[in-house]
Design a protein that fits this description.
The structure holds two protein chains of two kinds. By secondary structure, chain A is an alpha/beta fold. Chain A contains seven helices and nine strands. The radius of gyration of chain A is 16 Å and the shape is globular. By secondary structure, chain B is mainly α. Chain B has one domain (3-79). In chain B, strands 1-2 form a two-stranded antiparallel sheet. In chain B, helix 1 runs antiparallel to helix 2 (41-50) and helix 2 crosses helix 3 (53-71). Chain B starts with a helix and ends with a helix. The chains are: A alpha/beta, B mainly alpha. The interface between A and B is medium-sized, with 39 and 26 residues. Strand 8 of chain A pairs antiparallel with strand 1 of chain B.
Amino acid sequence: MTLPQYEDVTEYLAVFSKPIIDECQKRNLKFRLLKKEKANRREFEFAPEYNFVVLNGHGSEDFITGHKDEKIIAKGENEKILFNRIVYARSCWAGAGLGKCYELKENKGCFIGYNIPFMFLIDVTWATNPSKDKIAKIFFDTSNSVAIGLIKGKTAKESNENSRKSMLKAIKKSIIKNDDNSRAIAEILWNNYSGQVLFGNMEAKI
Amino acid sequence: MSQKNSEEINEKLKELIIARIEANMSSNLKLSIGANGSMNKEQMIRHVADNDEIGRRIIQTHLNFMRAQATGQLTNALNEV
């Protein structure tokens, strides 16, 4: 799992990825974290073979970045190292370009990502201590459930669907709560719900 | 539709989205859109008013939600969970 952590957005991605790490540890799964400066292309390309990859970072249709915007994966350059693996990319747009590479019939892996910008809201009260931010937590809990579902042995299709359902449940909860933040939360969750996509082998499992 | 009418609709659309941001975003919230960093209500409104890339993305997000509400897509999806 890549965990760049060099500005406010990647700080949140890194902090809220902890439940994924906890789930791996709980199940004694072998995993490798590429944190901060180590979230670079060289470390990523020389990583031992893992069949499940979580990418946190900025992105576009054609690439996903790591530390300080270094392109870790780029279409036409090194995307083939992801093939036949299960990939979850919490990164803007990557589903629209990189994910589509997984439509190749011979690919046993899959790609879950976003064909829109992944968005989240933060409560500035907790800007210096993101782990306490209950607003941001809503967006990361619902997206973490993709990776956690896969770690628990569910298929890519089940994990993607469960994550999207959890977004709908969070929208419902927010609408019912009807406080000052409810409408904004519902709107941004709907954005992520609409844009979370799965390509490739839907029955893929870790 | 004439270019003038089209421009008027675009201006009205921007006004609508700005009004929604004013009403929906509390002052304690910031929106994070990928590499563009996080922005508060005033910065979001500025992007929409300027009709720049981030502003157009914000408009699109609001339109998607309004469309889902208007067509019943949102209600149908929420009824499934």
